[in-house]
Amino acid sequence: MVLRASLLTERASKKDLGNFSMHIAVVGLSHHTAPVEIREKLSIPEQNMEGSLKALKADEQVLEVSILSTCNRLEIYTLVKNPETGINAINDFLSTYSGLEKESLSPHLFNFHQEEAVAHLMKVAAGLDSLVLGEGQILSQVKKMLRLGQDYQSMGPILNRLLTQAVSTGKRVRTETNLGTGAVSISSAAVELAQLKLGQLSGEDKLFTLETEIVGVVGAGRMSRLLLQHLQAKGCNGVMLLNRTRERAEALAADFPELPINCHLLSSLNQCLSSCSLVFTSTATEEPIIDASRLNSIKRSNFLRLIDIGVPRNISADVDGIAGVESHDVDDLQEVVSRNQEARQQVALKAEALLKEEGRLFLEWWDSLEAVPTINLLRASLESVRREELQKALSRMGPDFSARERKVVEALSKGIINKILHTPVTKLRAPQTRIERQKALGVVETLFDLSSSQD
Ligand SMILES: NC(=O)c1ccc[n+]([C@@H]2O[C@H](COP(=O)([O-])OP(=O)(O)OC[C@H]3O[C@@H](n4cnc5c(N)ncnc54)[C@H](OP(=O)(O)O)[C@@H]3O)[C@@H](O)[C@H]2O)c1
């Protein structure tokens, strides 16, 4: 809080915070606007984050910037000088990063401005824009966007405040509504999809238990942990867990003492694909680890069902059409997700009122920044009067006045100024229309002759 306040004071000037041509915007794509084959081209892993933020910030239109990169979305939040040229700069970056021509990328991009951008972020943080409504991972991802923006110093006071407020909104929604209950996630939807497909295999449209299955899970990160939780809850018979590093797989397996788990290195992938009939993949690889040539080289007796929740995809699209193999990616989860959304939609409506309130609070704070330059000038003007008059009084008192007495008089003069300033400053920053605020600022500037003190 102290840091933010000092930053504001430092940066506030008529040209900067008080100039409302400055614009908050978000540009991006998500599962609502782009299929996984486009999204995976715009997945920005953590190791590329610093370079990407620097590249964006290097454009003189971009004052502040932060990036949200998840399996279902890539969103760039920014404060730009001019909406048109600022957004163009972001579009140029997206096209360069993805290697896609602007013409083929733009139909998949959305952009929101000002209030709409703020409302969108609040919705995202609450999990209301997620494929699985109310899923919890998005809040950690928004926290991560805030942390990376701070670490790489790509944000200033405005985005800092916006993202901090989005994080607290996400938490508030989860504590004040039932939206987060039921441990919903992409992983739970993936397990549900597997159960549905097993049901459909026997001609029924219902969820099947996994009691007879030894399920392959490739990857031992956060999503695999959630997969194991859901597989265990659904009574899965056992798991063959594969990972690039054995220690991480073993550490993960140790957290599930009641689920029989065999850990292997990725070099056992062919064995896993030939012995399991259901395999989940959730690694952060940038290149597919399963493709047609691998599958064609393996002897399989079982029908093989693959469910890939990785973005970029872990399973190449060329496996489609191989006899005895059915492959699904994150976009196929829509099928099970829509089965569960109705009940959650009701809760989501409740949460939206809360999001509106949080969005309004941010916008009021942002609007109030318009008063900062005038308040600073007013303070400076009264402070110079205080110093001048204090100096005169102290020199009149002469050397008889003790150091302690001088301090008391100085504190008295400061106290009077602060008391006088308190009400006008509060009123200038209080929520009001822009016209009202500008009128009030004009009156203060005229009465205290502040326009001449700016020069
Ligand atoms: N987090 C989410 O909310 C979410 C939601 C849906 C989908 N996804 C997607 O799911 C995948 C995993 O996400 P996560 O959050 O679980 O990641 P994570 O916790 O960072 O774990 C990454 C996993 O991928 C493995 N890995 C990394 N690079 C690899 C490579 N080049 N080859 C083989 N394995 C590699 C890691 O192995 P080591 O242990 O050996 O490092 C680890 O098992 C990602 O594609 C992500 O986009 C994530």
Would you spell out the secondary-structure blueprint of this structure?
Layout: H1 2-11, E1 23-30, H2 36-39, H3 49-57, E2 62-69, E3 73-80, H4 83-98, H5 102-105, E4 110-113, H6 114-126, H7 137-151, H8 157-176, H9 186-201, E5 214-218, H10 222-233, E6 238-243, H11 246-254, E7 261-265, H12 269-275, E8 278-281, H13 292-296, E9 304-308, E10 325-328, H14 334-368, H15 372-397, H16 403-429, H17 434-447, H18 450-454
Parallel strand pairs: 5-6, 5-8, 6-7, 8-9, 9-10
Antiparallel strand pairs: 1-3, 1-4, 2-3
The protein binds NADP nicotinamide-adenine-dinucleotide phosphate (NAP).
Task: Write a concise keyword list for the protein shown above.
6-stranded parallel beta sheet, 10 strands, single chain, 3 domains, Rossmann fold, 18 helices, alpha/beta, binds NADP nicotinamide-adenine-dinucleotide phosphate
In short:
The chain is an alpha/beta fold. It has 18 helices and ten strands.
Describe the 3D structure.
The protein has 455 residues and is of the alpha/beta class. It folds into 3 domains: 203 residues, Beta Polymerase, domain 2, CATH 3.30.460.30; 143 residues, 3-Layer(aba) Sandwich (Rossmann fold); 84 residues, no CATH class. It has 18 helices and 10 strands. The strands form 2 sheets. Strands 7-6-5-8-9-10 form a 6-stranded parallel β-sheet, with helices on both faces. Bound molecules: NADP nicotinamide-adenine-dinucleotide phosphate. NADP nicotinamide-adenine-dinucleotide phosphate binds next to helix 10.
